[in-house]
Design brief:
The strands form seven sheets. Strands 6, 7, 9, 10, 12, 13, 15 and 24 form an eight-stranded antiparallel beta sheet that branches. Strands 17, 26, 28, 29, 31 and 32 form a six-stranded antiparallel beta sheet that branches. Strands 3-4-25-18-22 form a five-stranded antiparallel beta sheet, with no helix packed on it. It has six helices and 34 strands. The two termini are 15 Å apart. By secondary structure, it is mainly β.
């Protein structure tokens, strides 16, 4: 370029001398030249829009019919529990009984007894339908007589309401063992009016088939009922409480948060638990969560909530959901903190209302609770002077000016003119800072206020007409010269939503930005001829 200038300038001088009559002494002219033109170059023009995302299959970014944008994260089966996961239900209706009966008192008569059992703290069993089960017995005869022993369970019924009964022949002074099948039986534990639960009536009949019983003769009865395989159990299952172990979710964004300041609020995030429940038991969940960022903490402040359960026998399974959002918690404040880590803990309480005497809890052999989690973040938020900073190495520093075709002293200034029409309700400003890490000082700063001005919004938070902006980013000679002293360059972006972040704005997929950028240079060439 310099060679072209050297040819151009003498040509102009010759043309001038050809038109002017006066004569000049060319020896008196200086041998130095100075050229400082202003050059404008159209650098780039284009548009940015997020509407094209709508054409990309994506389960995370969701577009409503009116183009409103939601970010949705979903994870299936975050909770998957069945009846076998609860120790309280594994040993229901198991029983061991040891009784000794004097035969002289019985003398061929029936003995009515009641088997009491304890299924667990506060549990009251009223009815069980047994799919598979047995009654194991061991009967020891302490008598010289040949005996017949019959055991009957009046409230353990097979089809057509036939009680389970079993007859055993007992040789003199012997022990006989065996079992009675309980398969496909319905067991009623509620016939005792004094205690209509956890009691099973039983009838023993002893008879001397040959010989007679003396005063010291006896029968030793051992009954063992292992926990049966049941189709359902009806009763009251107490108030066991399950505590969730404290768990910490480390978001691993501490370094990022160190470079963010200002305020940011997501207006309407939500966490939705969709579940299917076939435990017919009231359960209350108390979920606690605390967000931590440096010394600051934000609590979720969610009140305990109850899960829906089926109303047996009208229904045996129910599908429902529970949502944590701004209406019942401080979730927006917790998410918008944003936290470095979140600590979760809590508990689940069965039958929170206590024992009402109805004993209408039901569990089934296939009872299950399956929960799917959905986190939804509608793009509705506000920002006020939210700043992001990033530090890079000094990439514009010229180590050896002799190897560079353009040096800082060759330019009086360099300017980028940006003209934009912004359809987003979000404004952007930029600062570029020369920084010396040895002296911890900012050497020089280039600022570009309102590269993009936020578009105005209506009462619903939707942007209408785009906002026009005209911004110049000027890098003068002092900045270029100072670049050699800096070790780093700090970029600082400041974001503000419409009205300086005082109101909620919404993002739609039909928003866009049209822009044009021009490069304006003013070189400063000095030369000799």
């Amino acid at each position: 370029m310099l060679k072209k200038l050297l040819i151009f300038i003498p040509s102009v001088l010759l043309a001038i001398t050809g038109c002017v009559k006066e004569t000049y002494d060319m020896d008196t002219l200086s041998g130095r030249g100075h050229l400082s033109p202003v050059l404008a170059i159209s650098a780039v023009r284009g548009d940015i829009s997020i509407s094209d995302i709508n054409e990309i299959p994506n389960d995370t970014v969701v577009f409503d019919e009116d183009n409103f944008i939601r970010i949705v994260f979903r994870k299936d089966s975050v909770i998957d529990l069945d009846v076998n996961d609860f120790d309280e239900f594994n040993e229901l209706a198991s029983l061991v009984i040891d009784e000794t009966y004097l035969l002289a008192d019985a003398s061929l008569e029936n003995i009515e007894d009641t088997l009491d059992f304890d299924p667990g703290s506060g549990i009251e069993i009223e009815e069980i339908y047994i799919n598979t089960g047995v009654i194991n017995y061991s009967i020891t005869s302490v008598t010289d007589a040949l005996s017949s022993f019959t055991i009957t369970f009046p409230t353990v019924l097979r089809e057509e309401n036939i009680p389970v009964t079993h007859n055993i022949s007992l040789p003199p002074n012997s022990t006989v063992t065996g079992y009675v099948s309980l398969d496909d039986t319905e067991v009623d534990f509620s016939t005792d009016t004094d205690q209509p639960f956890n009691r099973l009536p039983v009838l023993y009949t002893f008879e001397a088939v040959s010989g007679t019983y003396s005063l010291t003769d006896m029968m030793v009865v051992h009954v063992d009922i292992p926990a049966p395989g049941y189709e359902y159990v009806k009763g009251y299952f107490g108030q066991p409480e399950e505590n969730f172990e404290e768990d910490t979710l480390d978001l691993e964004i501490e370094e990022i948060l160190d470079n963010i300041s200002g305020t940011f609020l997501l207006s309407d995030p939500s966490i939705r638990l969709e579940y299917s429940n076939s435990f017919s038991i009231p359960i209350e969940v108390d979920l606690k969560a605390t967000g931590y960022r440096d010394e600051e903490t934000v609590l979720l402040n969610l009140d305990p909530f109850s899960l829906s359960y089926p109303d047996v026998p009208a229904e045996f399974d129910i599908s429902s959901s529970f949502t944590v959002d701004r209406d019942n918690s401080d979730l927006p404040e917790l998410v918008s903190m944003p936290p470095e880590k979140v600590v979760f803990f809590g508990s689940a309480l069965m039958n929170p209302g206590g024992n009402t005497g109805t004993r209408d809890n039901y569990i089934f052999d296939d009872s299950r609770f399956i929960g799917n989690l959905e986190i939804e973040v509608p793009l509705e938020f506000r920002m006020a002077n939210l700043q992001f900073t990033d530090t890079t190495g000094n990439f514009i520093k010229i180590e050896d000016s002799s190897d560079s075709p353009a040096n800082p002293e060759d330019f009086e200034f360099l300017r980028i003119d940006i003209e934009a029409e912004n359809g987003f309700p979000l404004g952007v400003s930029l600062r570029m800072i020369l920084y010396d890490s040895l002296t911890f000082q900012n050497i020089d700063t280039v600022s570009a206020t309102d590269i993009l001005k936020p578009a105005p919004v209506d009462a619903t938070g939707r942007a209408g007409q785009p906002e026009k902006s005209l911004t110049s980013i000027e890098i003068d000679r002092h900045f270029w010269e100072s670049a050699g002293e800096a070790t780093n360059i700090i970029f600082s972006f400041t974001l503000n939503t419409t009205d300086q972040g005082t109101r909620d704005v919404k993002f739609y997929s039909d928003y866009g930005i049209d822009f044009r950028a021009s490069l304006v240079l003013k070189p400063d060439f000095r030369f000799e001829f």
